[in-house]
Specification:
Elements (H helix, E strand, L loop, with lengths): L2 H16 L3 H5 L6 H6 L8 E5 L5 H9 L4 E6 L2 H13 L6 E5 L7 H5 L4 E7 L8 H10 L1 E12 L7 H13 L8 H11 L3 E7 L4 E7 L2
Parallel strand pairs: 1-2, 1-4, 2-3, 4-5
Antiparallel strand pairs: 5-7, 6-7
Length: 217
């Protein structure tokens, strides 16, 4: 069995039951998601992709904020996609949000969605759970069109928070197979430099959350 499918099985085990309470519980600590979405600002007719779309919460919020754009989401967990699909229908957005089961590390948008590139791609609290997250970011950047942007939000280094809090948080995150990427900004800058793109780093809530933005020229 490949590492990708091992990871898919792990995510299925973790979220098969948690998906039912995911949004209600995660809103208290997945900080930075809404500021990241607010910064997407896709133009009229733009296409947006979320990698690791989970329950569809972010896609639904983004679709409501940007009614002129079309949205797509992929996830490696079939259970999460089932929940996302039901949520999209309940929100009446099935005409503007398309979902697909896919592994972000080997995702072919042409086969899955019938398009080769997107204007915006975002990843929300997923790189901390993807073993080959650097490759996923490089792959995502390759699916952006000219002037496209990759937005990534995840746990930061919590540098401005008490040491006891940082220690407790990281212990708790390990229980759920989450590993904050302390080199997120460094990797983003390296990826951007290799593609003649620009990179912006944002630190929120005393370092609790980080947002990395890579923009194609």
């Amino acid at each position: 069995m490949t590492a990708a499918f091992d990871h898919g099985d792990l995510m299925e085990r973790v979220y098969a039951r948690q998906r039912h309470i995911y949004d209600a519980t995660r809103k208290y600590y997945l900080l930075g998601r809404d500021p990241m979405i607010d910064g997407l600002k896709p133009g009229a007719g733009a296409t947006v992709l979320e990698i690791g779309c989970g329950t569809g919460r972010n896609l639904i919020r983004a679709a409501r904020i940007y009614p002129q754009a079309l949205f797509h989401g992929v996830d490696i967990s079939g259970s999460m996609l089932e929940t996302a699909g039901a949520s999209v229908v309940a929100a009446g957005l099935q005409g503007r949000i398309r979902l697909a089961h896919a592994d972000a590390a080997r995702f072919n948008p042409g086969k899955v969605f019938g398009r080769q590139s997107f204007d915006r791609i975002f990843i929300s609290y997923a790189v901390s759970m993807i073993p080959g997250w650097q490759s996923v970011m490089r792959e995502a950047l390759g699916h952006l069109g000219p002037g496209g942007e990759l937005h990534v939000v995840d746990f930061g280094d919590q540098h401005g928070l008490p040491r006891w809090f940082r220690s407790a948080l990281r212990t708790w995150l390990r229980w759920y197979h989450v590993t904050p990427r302390s080199d997120l900004f460094a990797v983003s800058a390296e990826i951007a430099a290799g593609r003649d793109a620009t990179m912006e780093a944002k630190r929120l809530y005393r370092g609790f959350a980080w947002i990395s933005i890579i923009r194609n020229r």
